What we know:
Order of helices and strands of chain B: HHEHEEHEHEHEEEHEHEHHHHH
Strand order of the largest sheet of chain B: 2-3-8-5-7-6
CATH class of chain A: Alpha Beta
Strand order of the largest sheet of chain A: 6-7-8-3-9-10
Order of helices and strands of chain A: EEEHEEHEHHHEHEHEEH
Shape of chain A: globular
Mean pLDDT of chain B: 87
Number of strands of chain B: 10
Largest sheet of chain A: 6 strands, mixed
Number of domains of chain B: 2
Distance between the termini of chain B: 24 Å
Radius of gyration of chain A: 18 Å
Oligomer: heterodimer
CATH superfamily of chain A: P-loop containing nucleotide triphosphate hydrolases
CATH architecture of chain A: 3-Layer(aba) Sandwich
Low-confidence stretches of chain B: none
Shape of chain B: elongated
Distance between the termini of chain A: 26 Å
Helix content of chain A: 25-40%
Strand content of chain B: 15-25%
Number of helices of chain B: 13
Largest sheet of chain B: 6 strands, mixed, barrel
Mean pLDDT of chain A: 91
Structural class of chain A: alpha/beta
Amino acid sequence: MIKMDGIRKTYRVGDVEVAAVRGISLHIRKGEFVAIMGPSGCGKSTLMNLMGCLDTSSAGSYLLDGQEVAGLDDDALSTIRNRKIGFVFQSFNLLPRATALENVELPLIYRDEGGIKTKAAAALASVGLADRAHHKPTELSGGQQQRVATARALVTDPAILMADEPTGNLDTKASEEVMALFGELHRQGRTILLVTHESDIARHAERIIHLKDGQVVWESRPEEVAAGAGAGGRA
Amino acid sequence: MKIVSTVRVSIKGLTANKLRTFFMMLGVLIGITALTVIVSVGQGAKLQVVQRMEKMGAFGAVMVVPGGGVTRGMGGVDTVPPTLTVEDAQAVKTELPDVSDVAMAQNKREVPVKFGGQSTSTVVWGVTPNYWKIRPTPVARGELFGPEEQSSAARVAILGPDTAQALFGNADPLEETIRLDNAPFKVIGVLKRQGASPGGGNLDDRILIPQATAARRLFNVTHLSQLVIQVKGNDQVAAAAERVKAVLRERHHIAPGMPDDFSVRIAEQMLGVITGTSQTLTIFLGIVAGLSLLVGGFIVMNIMLISVSERTKEIGLRRAVGARRRDILIQFILEAGVVTAAGGLIGVVLGVAGAMLASRLVGWPAAISWPAIVGAVLFAGVVGLVFGVQPARKAAALHPVQALRG
């Protein structure tokens, strides 16, 4: 599903070049549930943006769903984001004045397809919020808002679901609610990529990729993380 | 992305912040309202003059008054030069085939009029009976005089309604004898109320008597103060006026290069003089209103720039779920266009209402100029589109990653 080879990303800050991602190669198979972990500043957000086609790499090759992404122009990347990727953000990013249903419809209005309402309603039902379709985000709990955001990510039936700290703004109970949903989606065969700095959250994944200073330093199974973050001394 | 859903997204963006949208509309709305009122009232003023002239049968007629120059010659027989004669009138009628009729008139202002104990003074017009054919002169009571009264120089008079009111109050003036400059005249008719003439004179305060009577029994002069010439075919008036001029110059032995000793006027030309001033004013005010539209455009641009900054996260989200740069660009341009077009439409509604109110207040007809209004709304929309481009480009240029950070 995702195959990255020697991906680098450098930013220019004034005269200084800062390398945020320094040669990352990784492989995520269809149907996998993978977490990317690391302390803040380790480059995991940059990596996420590259994987999500929100940003372009400085060097390296990136195959997404069999398609080479490196070197594509802005319009092509927009189309890929629309067709193949579903994003879930830490701060939900719901349009405040729109209803849950309208928020879920959002990705579909950038396609020339009919049946927007039906598809959005089905996606909302799949996260268990059919009865909240006409509520505004402010009328929903944090957990419910993140489930609406997840429905929005799923409505286009994307190849991969990418979640960046999806529980970062949620309390423990709501976090568990959202992670349970992710677990359920994984069992249904969804490919899920989760970025987090919390090992409690990362342990829901099948495989955990540890990042430090823009490089992959370690891969582990959730049991190993649960056994103790000190196992590799790097988590 | 379909245009319909883009418009829907834009409208959604506008309804999300109603107060801001209202302020964006305001500048354009005021501009269009002002423009609509100004143009409509200006057109109304012109229409009123045209209507008065049509009522008087002014179009298709050539008027000749004695004396050269533009300002002279409108006075009575006592003030104009005695150069225009009955023979001139007959020559015009016989020599020019496209002239169907020539009415002669002598007038004098401030003629004392008496009935019983009541006295007043007004303008007395001696006119030939064919005057009615050229200048519609409806009577409310009694009748107009005809060729017999003209040939016999009968002492008959027709009163304007205001004159009748001044002399008789509510009593019936018909068959009564009034005294014009002490000469007795029998009242045979009272005119219908006509209001003001195109030049602003009061058509309801005058007395009409046969021209022959005026010449022989009242004014004691033979020269005329006005010729009213009916031309065959309304389109030929200007050409006919030139031919009338040529005939009169020859009769008056005016050498080439010397100025006329008479003035030829046609309604079409007078209309130009009268409406020219109001036209200039309308154009000037229209420019001011247009400038206010431009100011409205700048307001729209500034508020849209603020809106783009505030909605950075929304833009980032839209980009993340697949909106291309041009989708964002079109969305924000359309927001500006929709808001100004809506402001324009509301402005038209308010402007039409305002124009009708204004016409009621000043008492002339409201002429709603739809081409001007459609043009104004289109212009408002274009203002929005043009001034929306800059904020929209700013929105579209945002990098998705940075935009998502807010």
